């Protein structure tokens, strides 16, 4: 059994809590308050501006040319999403809230992993950013009881679409390849990183829903 197939069931309780979260329910029903959505988008644009550099770092660490190309292209894809977010939503809304504690935690965690751990562990740490968004996108697309004109449809299409699915499948394949030759201790670190990043995905939705601020 490949690495991802055996690790995925371990985050099922986290995934179940993500899709049951009022933020996701609100995206699905179209009833998420716009203010909350804008807060999320602004924090996500701050997240993406760090995440792209994390992906590019992984790309620069890969010795295999195609793996390198994949992560560098993924970083480039993130830049395109960032730009699209800015032009379609954020420019008009002019949100200026500072980076939230959770956003700072998540981006710092990923940066720490790729700068201080092995390549395989770095790959495992960024994998939930691919797989969880894809699964959430697919889950929302599969619901039949959404409204006719969902204001969040563009967002849903981005992550539920075919293009993103292909990128996710490749990230899974590459990470599996690295797990095949990883010693026990490294596999344990890969698992811990994958689970931690999955928890941070939940926390990111939750912090957006709460419009999390620094308490002091
Ligand atoms: C927090 C977060 N994780 C993953 C993605 C998908 O790239 C995103 N846009 N934001």
Textual characterization of the structure:
The chain is 79% helix and 0% strand. It has 216 residues and is mostly helical. The protein has one domain (3-209): Heme oxygenase-like (Heme Oxygenase, Chain A, Up-down Bundle). It has ten helices and no strands. 4-amino-5-hydroxymethyl-2-methylpyrimidine (HMH) binds at residues 44, 47-48, 129, 133, 201, 204. It comes from Sediminicola luteus. It catalyses: 4-amino-5-aminomethyl-2-methylpyrimidine + H2O = 4-amino-5-hydroxymethyl-2-methylpyrimidine + NH4(+); thiamine + H2O = 5-(2-hydroxyethyl)-4-methylthiazole + 4-amino-5-hydroxymethyl-2-methylpyrimidine + H(+).
Order of helices and strands: HHHHHHHHHH
Bound molecules: 4-amino-5-hydroxymethyl-2-methylpyrimidine
Distance between the termini: 48 Å
Radius of gyration: 17 Å
How is the quaternary structure best described? single chain
What is the fold named in CATH at topology level?
Heme Oxygenase, Chain A
Q: CATH superfamily name?
A: Heme oxygenase-like
User: What is the CATH class?
Assistant: Mainly Alpha
Taking the sheet with the most strands, its summary is: none
Question: Count the helices. How many?
Answer: 10
CATH architecture: Up-down Bundle
**Regions with pLDDT < 50 over 5+ consecutive residues?**
none
Number of DSSP strands? 0
What is the overall silhouette? globular
Roughly how much helix do the residues carry, as a percent range?
Answer: over 70%
Alpha-beta content class: mainly alpha
The total domain count is 1
